[in-house]
């Protein structure tokens, strides 16, 4: 007879959220926990290849035919979701209980704080899961407390356990929060902390060694704060989960042919560029990136999502002697490929953890939100990257990008950053290793607590 706790893992609809949460789900299953993964109805229908051992369920956000797109604005989307989501989550929990599948714990995306109230209503464990950097979380927490104001008046800010940050290193909203949409996203970011002090656990997709000071500080605020990352497919780090080489939750289709293109390039010769799943670039920025990559005269592989392709300059070939543009790729396989030398990145938190875990130095072109602060850490704290300067219109010019690529690929500075990135790779691996790694120990502590929680299902 075996006893398995049952976790409901609830993700905000978005690639940057579902990727680490599905990875967390796989780890839980590997440690003997039963997992149901849930996200919104529309988003769950777009997911491809969720592993069969994870049940997929959905809740309503009020927009069954098109998620954000149908809502028109992000503000309207969140308002409706916050109204419809909680009762829909209640229905799901009741449905699973009726089917003989009661939930023992909800691990909810910290962006959905109302899920904790639902967990409390059912008397089950509520664990908040943060998909962003601990330092960024601390910044938003201080906004929630009213200790930092937006927009920021000071030019520099000092927070406990974080290096002094200039205004230009703070999440984008501190500089530019003029419209309702930015305010809605800022509200989402600070709302993560509205009730987190009541959470039974506060989990974070990071690892202790990456930022010990802020992790120690956070543990003083929330004693049940634990770093359990990097939550990336196992093949690229600890290899504990067999054949786990893909998140399995892509809403985009990967163009696998780019792997063949990479195989034919010399080791350490290719610049990989991607701006994640969400942020649109404006046409001028797209043109400057295109020419910067081209003029570097190095091989480049660039991900331009289908919705962005229209903005490519008319004279820019998607396939040329030096370059290849694809609409999506298996980013981890690309970063792990020996021909890839560096990563031109928007510094989304998943891309940041992935590049550190695979020892690839970065050329930072942050766009928005937490990406700005992640870039600061890449350059000044972890020392794995160069940030491309912006002009007075906040555009990265092609010459600036070209020069940074040349510096990374052709100068001693680039070699130093590669060395540092390889050291982070080794620390990330140690953190998830089952031989006493910090994230591994934290994960086991959390899982063990689930095995002792009250509403356990007995499986014969
Ligand atoms: O061709 C591609 C491009 C991306 N990815 C994956 O898509 C994810 C992208 O995530 P991330 O790098 O975090 O970027 P966003 O999609 O932009 O993520 C959003 O969510 C993140 C987590 O909250 C935030 O840090 C970002 O600022 C926010 O834009 C990563 O796992 C990538 O490996 C691919 O698999 N193939």
UniProtKB/TrEMBL annotation:
Gene Ontology MF terms in the entry: quercetin 3-O-glucosyltransferase activity; quercetin 7-O-glucosyltransferase activity
Which BP terms from GO are recorded? monocarboxylic acid metabolic process
Q: Record keywords: Transferase included? A: yes
Q: Which CDD domains match?
A: GT1_Gtf-like
Give the enzyme's EC designation: 2.4.1.-
Q: Name one Pfam family in it.
A: UDPGT
Mind listing the UniProt keywords for this protein, alphabetically? Glycosyltransferase, Transferase
Protein family (similarity comment)? Belongs to the UDP-glycosyltransferase family.
Q: InterPro entries of this UniProt entry?
A: UDP_glucos_trans, UDP_glycos_trans_CS
Superkingdom is Eukaryota
Organism annotation: Arachis duranensis (Wild peanut)
User: Which EC class is this protein assigned?
Assistant: transferase
Q: PROSITE patterns, from UniProt?
A: UDPGT
Reply yes or no: does the keyword Glycosyltransferase apply.
yes
- What protein does this entry describe? Glycosyltransferase
